[in-house]
Amino acid sequence: MPRILRFLRRPFVVDLRALALLRIGVAAVVLLDVAIRSTDLEAHYSNLGVLPLHVLYQYCWNPYQFSLHAASGLWQAQAVLFLLEAAGAVALLVGYHTRLATFVTWLLLVSVQNRNPLIGQGGDDLLRMLLFWALFLPWGRLYSVDARGRERPARLTYFSAATVAYIVQIALVYWCTALLKSAPEWTTEGTALYYALSLDQVLLPGGRLLYPYPGLLHWLTFATYYTELLLPFVLFIPFRVTWWRLFFVGVMYLFHLGISLTLFVGLFFLINMASVLGLLPPVVLDWLDKRLARGRQRLGPRVAARLARVRPHLARLRLPVRLRLEPGFQLTDSRRALLRHLRNAAVTVLLGYVLWWNLDSVNQPSLYMSQPLRWFGYLFRVDQHWGMFAPAVFKDDGWYILDGTTRQGQHLDLNRQGQPTTYAKPASVVALFKNDRWRKYSENYLFVSNEYMRPYYCNYLLRIWHEDPTHPPLRRLEVIYMKEVSLPDYQVSVPKRELLCGCEPQP
């Protein structure tokens, strides 16, 4: 290979051990996502919840999408699919039949995301894309069950079109979100973080500590904007790659740790932290290998003894299907090379499509990709939009009051476990949300374009309230939003009561 080509491809060479850590990190996040989603099987994924199937198909469905979770409106069917996704993620975590586990996990993740788009956030797109590109990566070659009994690779470095796609995808996340932040509060005024921390719906204790300092928030706004816009360029510098990789990963970890301490963003920060594990350079992984070797020396005998007890049971769980080649068909070196070239060609085309999609997303109105060309993105869910707090920070802050009226005329707030209704602002608005999925749902609930969803939420709340015999019966429930618009310069607006929906028990 010419020296210039070796030089240019250096930024896209990754360590197989780093890919294994990426696999473990992504699988762990998927398991956490499954655990959180499973607490709302009925509410978010069944016909008894806030988005029945007929409403999904009428208002939120794209004809090119698919969802196994949309095959049934029963929460029991959803539970089975959630268990299958968890099993796939566990297999992915330990590297058991890694390629198949990756496909199953990706398939079921796409399926559950398509089932309820009203609770999705930007991190979901990244998690989905990491699994998609991993279908073409050897991230089960090390630190896996699949690697047991196989010789350690002579070379730990790896390069292919898939590693290029993986690194470009990470850069696209930050480039696109910066380019979409076109409002003056990001580009010239430096007030975006002030407005972000003015949102009580997402404000965490760390944000409260920063909020009183406008000068610091002004500086942090520009630091955030230019970090997203400029930092990804270091991933493509073909010299001192180790140093630039360490710099990028370190800054990203500090960046997302800061977000997690100040803003309630669900799994977004964990997904982003897991996404950069594949960039770790050999110097870090050599250090990690030494620590793991010491751990194996101490714990090896104990683990071996316990494995000996369970190995007969594990043997029964082995998949019976094996790929058997016909006697006349052998994977010769030339055939392997051909398959590798075909795979790289396919990934290159896919990456070109993803680049095209992102280029189109940062241009409004759309200039490049026509609607007939989007079917592929919707079908395989490589569609993506990185508009976090873009083009401007949401200003319509406030909190919900679920005002239930009893038959005796008392007013109870279902959002506060049936305490007497009060219009006073709660000490912590974030504490009113069960998890970030509900926070995102409540955000979408406000939009006039989503007015169709309001009665289903109201009736769902009434039903689950009356399922508890200790609760007093209600004759009416009103979903009220106390709108408190974020104003500049620490001005405080007067909350305005907005009735979003009212419903009564079915006779």
Describe this structure in words.
By secondary structure, the chain is an alpha+beta fold. The protein folds into 2 domains: 3-280 and 341-380, no CATH class; 396-503, no CATH class. The protein is built from 19 helices and 7 strands. It has helices at 3-9, 16-38, 41-45, 53-60, 75-94, 98-115, 122-134, 161-180, 184-187, 192-197, 205-210, 214-230, 241-262, 268-275, 282-316, 333-361, 375-380, 436-446, 454-466, and strands at 14-15, 157-158, 396-406, 411-413, 419-420, 474-485, 496-503. The strands form 2 sheets. The chain has a 5-stranded antiparallel beta sheet with strand order 5-4-3-6-7, with helices on one face. Strands 1-2 form a two-stranded antiparallel sheet. β3 and β4 form a beta hairpin. α5 (75-94) runs antiparallel to α6. The longest helix has 35 residues, at 282-316. Mean pLDDT is 92; it is low at 321-329. Its main location: membrane. Residues 11-284 form the HTTM-like domain.
Brief write-up:
With 507 residues, the chain is of the alpha+beta class.
Annotate the secondary structure layout:
Elements: H1 3-9, E1 14-15, H2 16-38, H3 41-45, H4 53-60, H5 75-94, H6 98-115, H7 122-134, E2 157-158, H8 161-180, H9 184-187, H10 192-197, H11 205-210, H12 214-230, H13 241-262, H14 268-275, H15 282-316, H16 333-361, H17 375-380, E3 396-406, E4 411-413, E5 419-420, H18 436-446, H19 454-466, E6 474-485, E7 496-503
Antiparallel strand pairs: 1-2, 3-4, 3-6, 4-5, 6-7
Helix pairs in contact: 2-5, 2-7, 2-14, 5-6, 6-7, 7-8, 7-14, 8-12, 8-16, 13-14
